[in-house]
Amino acid sequence: MRFPARPAQAPPKLPEWDPAWSRIVEAKTPEGPHSFHVLDTLEVLRTNGLEPSGTILALHGNPTWSYLWRHLAQATVDTARSGGRVWRLIAPDQLDMGFSERLAHNSLPTPHGAEVRRMSQRIDDFDAVVTPLLAEVASSAAPQDGVADAASTGRNGAASADTAASAEHPIVTIGHDWGGVLSLGWAARNADRVSASISLNTAVHQPEDAPIPAPLRATLAGPMLPTATVVTDGFLRVTMSLGDLDPEIKDAFRSPYESASRRHGIGGFVADIPVDESHPSYSELQRVGADIAAFDHPALLVWGPKDPVFLERYLRDLRQRLPQADVHRFELGSHLVSEDYDVAGVVTDWLETQFPAGGTGANAPSDATAASEATVAENATAAPARGVTSILDARHDDEAIASVDFAQTPAQQITWRHLWHVTTSIAGGLLELGVRPGDRVSMLVPPGNNLTAALYACLKIGAVAVVADAGLGPKGMTRATSSADPQWIIGELPGLGLARAFNWPGRRISVSPLGSVAAKLFKVETSLTALSRTTHHAQLPTPAATDDAAILFTSGSTGPAKGVRYTHGDISALAAVLTRVFDVREGTGLVAGFPPFALLGPAIGATSVTPDMSVTKPKTLTASAISDAIIAGHSTMVFASPAAYKNVAATASDLDEEQKAACARVELVLSAGAPVPLGLMDSIAEVFPNASIHSPYGMTEGLLLTDIDHAGVRAADATPNLGVCVGRPIDGVELALAPIDDSGSAADVLERGVDAQGHLGEFVVSAAHIKSGYDNLWATTAASARDDLEGRTWHRTNDIGHIDAAGRVWLEGRLQHAVTTPRGPVGPGGLEALIDSDEQVSRSSIVGIGPAGTQSLVAVLDAEGTDLSPGLAPLDLTSRLRELVAEVLGHDLTAVLVAPMFPTDIRHNSKIDRSRLATWTDHVLSGGSVRTKV
């Protein structure tokens, strides 16, 4: 089959494409001149009177073309127009790709065919195009079509002085797919003129012991390669299916490849994938990989984890080669991640932090990195001098009870001496096994003595514990584990079974010894039991306060669970808060029905008791179970979630006299995870008649931020404020408010004191014990810590509400759930608390239906535990609720529906997924079935 040569040409009219971006460039490659279609924003910038002060060199992969960078082109032009750095984007179509020149070929492509364009040639092509284009700006020459001369640099050679990167004009590369490794390779070989590099899903190294990804294996198999890539457009269509693309966008991507005669480059690109040492491009890929590992400039890796081709192992390899790289994962993103998410926004934000307009130049730390480092330093400074394990170490000879685990049968008690001995032995055993400071260890162990031993052994040697709720489910747990990328897994059989089934990363350690068959099946190397017999090491590593201690995953109630980074200083600061604010100190007996606080016991010297309950089902905690735990630990303090307390109150009639007396000895009851309404507070007070009952407000990113007691809830309940009152900031917490505008966005300017009172906004907090950042979520970290006020590090909570004249905080929902009505934004939580006061309502949710800014308010009621039937609410109830809402808002509800069930998070059984309810409501109001799954 013969493929004729064709010159480069400009694209036709396409959606989201500015024809002014297109130019045809004749470039001298080592083989001679070739014509390239290039996306170049220089003309558009100069038309706007803007001269570039930085250049981005972009390279697409297969089978895309420069159309892939249209969003980045528009974003950089918009940034320049708004006063930011003027970035010029240069994105050539590779030869035989896009609208660049089609070379003459006499045969279909095969992996070892002579007519396949190889990796080394493609890097040369890129160099031949971009080098003279860079010189255009340096010499202030107007862009002209013609023959571009790469002789001034030679093949991948050093740039001349006028094209070298500088603080005033940084040069940044970005690539995707195989364009990612090519652009990284070019950047590494031109490090003297490149300031930074960015890559989207790509791969550098194919592990010898890992199979080629299934889609590529199928395409590379014998005659399938030319059939799937050239003779038909199967490969192209499959790639376009790896993203949520509108039909016209798919057509635009396919436009350069309408016939087999124009698709040889697609097949050639696939054929040039070096799958083994015999491949012609194998040695070149090895050289490129080594070059990339020597690249020490700033780097950003943006990743779509649902990519079926560029799997997690390729990101792991890239991170090892580029340890300085910032990483941002779009957890639900696939191969075409820049089509799924606003990658252009992440890139321009990252570039602004690295090369601020009018800033001091390249290689400055990014805002997210700087904010994270500032938080770590701030927390370390504020943290107590003693480390997380110092109390445990000091009590190494204490025979008092340190922990009681009711998950064991019978309940297992261990002393401080035993706990110290076991954790020290396991720590030494982990070191001998190969665990090193900074290694990540996934904890697939339920709360109890085993988890405490594993966690504190890791803390002693500086290993980082990764903790994710089993309640996330297999898919959620897989996303979390893949994101954290642990080197080790410690688990009981259910967790090890999931790790095996879903191929989670990490060498495996079981809690208890396994037989040889089971150990082989689960790939287990040893057990905690075996490690606990290790002879104590004379000296263990000493972690610094700024070192990471744990990655704690959020509940995933409003999207994929996020890993929250806590340093040793953060955890020490949190322990200090408990001691300072709630008088929790050495000798206190603590029943922890809320898992995060069960792990803090050894850090504060408290006797921790894990009650008999399912950690993934808080409602399984009964009054008998909690009272038995109180008795076993001589406890005076109880900590659980509202869902757990609700069942405790409901089963209180089962208590015998001894259990009632134990509950009467409790001095402090804490509830976390969700606000506690007055009715539940009253019920808790009946179970614990002599306790001070508190409901602190916090989140995974900051576990204790405000506090309110029983009397405070009663006083707040008597006011006309909307929402749920969570009290005032605790000692050491600073609170600000970012007002919400009519579009539902939170302002960039923060308000404090009197200025912050009385209107809806997002709560922004600062404290020594807040997180040090999100793990592998550069953009999320940057957004959450973007505020600069009083030189402190702040965290945007994503929770909304208002502050009343008494300084009390009232929660009214999540920022993304704010309803933007024609009369202004409404926090759903405020109306929900009002509606929940009706005797027929057990639980409600307010959702907005319609376009932003004109949304209608709809109340959705939970049918569970009531006599309400799914569908439209009864007329009398609807009328009553509409009048109630109209009285406080001035406008009423559009409809009141009853849902068959409410979607909530697993950890607390209380955080309502209002987005899912809104989708269900829209479906029902459009005529859909009320039985549709929420």
UniProtKB/TrEMBL annotation:
- Family matches, as PROSITE patterns: AMP_BINDING (PS00455)
> Which InterPro entries is this protein grouped with?
AB_hydrolase_1 (IPR000073), AB_hydrolase_fold (IPR029058), AMP-binding_CS (IPR020845), AMP-dep_synth/lig_dom (IPR000873), ANL_N_sf (IPR042099)
Question: Which Pfam families does the UniProt entry name for this protein?
Answer: Abhydrolase_1, AMP-binding
UniProt entry tagged with the keyword Mitochondrion? no
A single MF term (Gene Ontology): medium-chain fatty acid-CoA ligase activity
Write out the entry's keywords from A to Z.
Ligase
Q: Which residues form the AB hydrolase-1 domain?
A: 55-339
Q: Does the keyword Ligase apply?
A: yes
Its organism's taxonomic lineage begins at: Bacteria, Bacillati, Actinomycetota, Actinomycetes, Micrococcales
- Family affiliation: Belongs to the ATP-dependent AMP-binding enzyme family.
Originating species: Brevibacterium antiquum
Q: What is this protein called?
A: Acyl-CoA synthetase (AMP-forming)/AMP-acid ligase II
Q: Where is the AMP-dependent synthetase/ligase domain?
A: 399-774
Per the UniProt entry, what is one GO biological process?
fatty acid metabolic process
Region Disordered: start and end of each range?
Answer: 141-166
